[in-house]
Amino acid sequence: MANSALLVMDVQQTIVDMVDGGAGILPRLRDAVDAARAAGIPVVYVAIEVRKGWAAASPRSKAIAFAVRTGIFDEGGPGLEIHPDIAPREGDVVVTKRRGSAFSGSDLELVLQSRDIDHLVLAGIATSGVVLHTACHANDRDLGLTILKDACLDLDPETHRFLVETMFPQWADVVSVEDWIASGPVTAY
Q1: 3 state SS of 4
Q2: In the β-sheet with 144-153, what is the strand arrangement from edge to edge?
Q3: Cα gap 144→142, rounded to integer Å
Q4: 3-class SS at 41?
Q5: Which residues form the signal peptide (predicted)?
Q6: What is the dihedral angle through the alpha carbons of 149, 154, 158, 164, rounded to the nearest 10 degrees?
Q7: Partners of 88 in the beta sheet?
Q8: Which of 13, 70, 1, 78 is nearest to 45 (CA)?
Q9: Could you give the percent of the chain with pLDDT greater than 70?
Q10: Are the C-beta atoms of residues 182 and 150 closer than 8 Å to each other?
Q11: Domains (ranges, CATH) in the chain?
């Protein structure tokens, strides 16, 4: 039986404000978080922050160059807290990443190893960003994967649809939050 963790990724105030646009992802995320906690599954929050300036960024990376130029994800900046509707509680883990994947520049791998976690349940913003990058990383690490398709969101609905219907099923079980909860999230889907 797999030891699972729910990763809630990049659901920070600024990102939700930019991307959600009324999509209503927060209630589904809250349902997933509540179900994981009730089942004793660790909830790991992943947040992006980058160092100010170019100290840890290359102008060759379009995404990081944009973040550095605009200061939108500057370390310690405003709006980078986890959205209050799904805020971490005592006992939850929060890791800070520096790039697209939840593994990049964070101590996520140590957190997973210390808890003997071998299956990840992924949710977050954006499907084509942190979800895709983390799924690739996890797949390369031979971790089991479940992706909560309606607890992920992307600026481009067609990109989201393509990823959850075509690409992700090659690597992961792709299910709705409701189906994941109904299946009993104590085990991998």
Answers
A1: strand
A2: 93-97, 43-48, 4-9, 119-125, 144-153, 173-175
A3: 7
A4: coil
A5: none
A6: -20
A7: none
A8: 13
A9: 83
A10: no
A11: 4-182 (3.40.50.850)
179: left (phi over 0), alpha (psi -120 to 50) or beta: alpha
What per-residue confidence (pLDDT) applies to 188? 45
Residue carrying structure tokens 């990109």: 159
Give tens-digit pLDDT for 84-112.
999 999 989 999 998 889 998 899 999 99
Q: Which two tokens stand for residue 53?
A: 């300036």
In DSSP notation, 142-169 reads T-EEEEEEEEEE-SSHHHHHHIIIIIGG
Quote helix, strand, coil % in the chain, to nearest 5: 40, 20, 40
Note the pLDDT tens digit of each residue in 49-88. Answer: 887 765 556 666 656 656 565 666 667 777 789 999 999 9
